[in-house]
Amino acid sequence: MITIQSYCHIWPEGLAKNNLRLVDFSSHSAESSGEVRLNAVETSSNTKPSSHERLVQFYRALNINYPKFHKMDNLSKLGFLGAEVLFDGSGQTDSTSVVLSNLSSSLESDRIFQESLNDIPSPAQFVYTLPNIVVGEICIRHKIKGENSFLLTSQFDSQALIDAILQSLIFGGVDQCLSGWIECINDDFYGFLFLAKSGEGELELTKSVLDTLYMRK
Amino acid sequence: MMEELIEKLKGQIIEQLNLVDVNPEEVGPEDPLFGDGLGLDSIDALELIVMLEKIYGIKIENPEEGKTIFMSLKSLATYITENK
Q1: Which of A65, A67, A127 sits opposite B19 (nearest CB)?
Q2: Taking the CB of the first residue and of the last residue of chain A, which one, N or C, has fewer CB atoms within 10 A?
Q3: Is A7 helix (H, G, I), strand (E, B) or coil?
Q4: What are A189's strand-pairing partners?
């Protein structure tokens, strides 16, 4: 039996782990909707922050200290934040694989790099013109050496993820798999990441469970 | 003159390489830029080469020189002064 051990959602207004709001940028009272507000963040500006600004605000709110975060593109920042929340300094990443997915690949970074071609192109931007770079960033941070893959699908495809997760758990010889959807495009983003593991648990890894969790934020 | 250039370079490097959490006051002119110092990596080295060309119009022809040129802010300032 494969189960979902924990999951997190990241979107411009908030970040939640297992439905518990860890960071909240929304203006409404989280308590009034029955959620626990652990880390409400006050923002002074009335203008809507860019995706980049918002992702940095999440980084600050979570008290992470990893200078390389600031060099990453938005897609990597998003995946990095999700992995931080799910691993939560557990150090239990020895036997882990990574299977991530999205629709727009690294298109946002590709555009930025393309624009830089008018001048001397930036090597630091070039390195992020592949979607699987985020996997590398996560693996470096958490010393993950298991198999990894990045799937491009036209929409959240729970079955494709389940197939790849099973493949990595059964044939890749790892104990757990970090998986999910991370999409960054048009100055917007959405992340749904989870840890799947062999063994008993409340949430079995099925298509319907994943589809339900993906929609919940 | 040299001190001014070193201060300017410090700001340019911090901005160009997104060293957001680096306090400029804690970076000395002879501190190593790579390894234990600012902790820059190989991609940062390429960015520094681009920065030299963009801002100062200096092209490093021999990559072997890079190690010496980018040793510290002082060595970089010296190279710029001599090659501008």
Answers
A1: A67
A2: N
A3: strand
A4: A184
Tell me which residue range forms the domain holding A188: 2-215
Structure tokens at A150: 């990045």
Closest chain A C-alpha to B47 CA, distance in angstroms: 6
Residue B60 forms contact with A (CB below 8 Å): no
CATH of the domain at A143: 3.40.47.10
Domain ranges of chain B: 2-83
Q: How far apart are CA B75 and CA B66, in angstroms?
A: 10
Express each pLDDT in A134-148 by its tens digit.
999 999 999 999 999
pLDDT band at residue A35 under the 50/70/90 scheme = very low
Is the Cβ–Cβ distance between A216 and A209 less than 8 Å? no
- Which residue does chain B place closest to A71, by CA atoms? B18
Point out the residue among A71, A119, A127 whose CB comes nearest to the CB of B18.
A71
Burial profile B17-34: b = 16 or more Cβ within 10 angstroms, e = fewer: bbbeebeeeebebeebbb
Residues of B in contact with A123 (CB under 8 A): 43, 46-47, 50
Which secondary structure element, helix H or strand E, spans residue A150, and what is its range?
strand A148-152
At CA A9, angle to CA A70 and CA A63, rounded to 5? 40
The residues pairing with A184 across neighbouring beta strands, listed in sequence order, are A189
Mutate to test the interface with A, among B14, B46, B56 (most CBs of A within 10 A): B46
Interchain proximity A119–B54, CB inside 8 Å = yes
* Cα gap A177→B17, rounded to integer Å: 33
A127 contact residues in B (CB cutoff 8 A): 43
- The complex scores an ipTM of 0.83
DSSP for residue A68: G
